[in-house]
Design brief:
Blueprint: E1 7-12, H1 17-32, E2 36-41, H2 71-74, H3 79-93, H4 99-108, E3 112-116, H5 117-122, E4 136-138, H6 140-147, E5 151-154
Parallel strand pairs: 1-2, 1-5, 2-3, 3-4
Length: about 160
């Protein structure tokens, strides 16, 4: 008999659309399976939970080999906006909600959402800068403590 996963803690460190969604999808999937979930946003991943930025995340078209386009094309004006529109259309077809709505849904399902204290301090942010779903601003040590006994996933 295999052991059932009971807890997962997901670190989101990238602020691009394709950098944020994997963590949100994994946290949502965990909660749907009855698995305790924590989301820990650090460095540019904080953009996903900063109230004034979370609705403006873009697809990175430069230096992203998965785009399958030369970087020179990715730097052209409007390419990131075009790629972002296309990705959002595809996600909408699959009924994947926008970041703000997805975070609300995940949080309402019992997922804990945290911001990294060191990054918050480094970027001179305050609790008021974040969306209301952020439960707390915590240290890495506190994150490890609450993650004990579970898996840590870095997206």
């Amino acid at each position: 008999m295999s052991e059932q996963l009971k807890k997962v803690s997901i670190v989101v460190s990238k602020g691009s659309l394709e950098g944020v969604y994997p963590g949100l999808i994994m946290a949502n999937g965990a909660r749907m399976e009855g698995i305790e979930a924590n989301l820990f946003f650090t460095f540019f991943g904080l953009d996903a939970i900063i109230d004034k930025r979370m609705d403006k995340l873009k697809v990175a078209t430069v230096g992203n080999p998965a785009m399958h386009i030369p970087s020179i094309i990715g730097i052209l004006p409007g390419m990131s906006a075009f790629a972002t529109r296309m990705m959002k259309k595809e996600m909408e077809k699959l009924d994947i909600p926008p970041v703000r709505e997805f975070l609300e849904m995940i949080h309402d399902a019992g997922c804990n959402i945290y911001a990294c204290k060191a990054t918050v301090d480094m970027f001179h942010l305050k609790k008021e800068d974040f969306c209301e779903q952020v439960d707390d601003i915590i240290t890495v040590g506190e994150f490890y403590e609450m993650s004990a006994g579970g898996e840590i996933i870095f997206t």
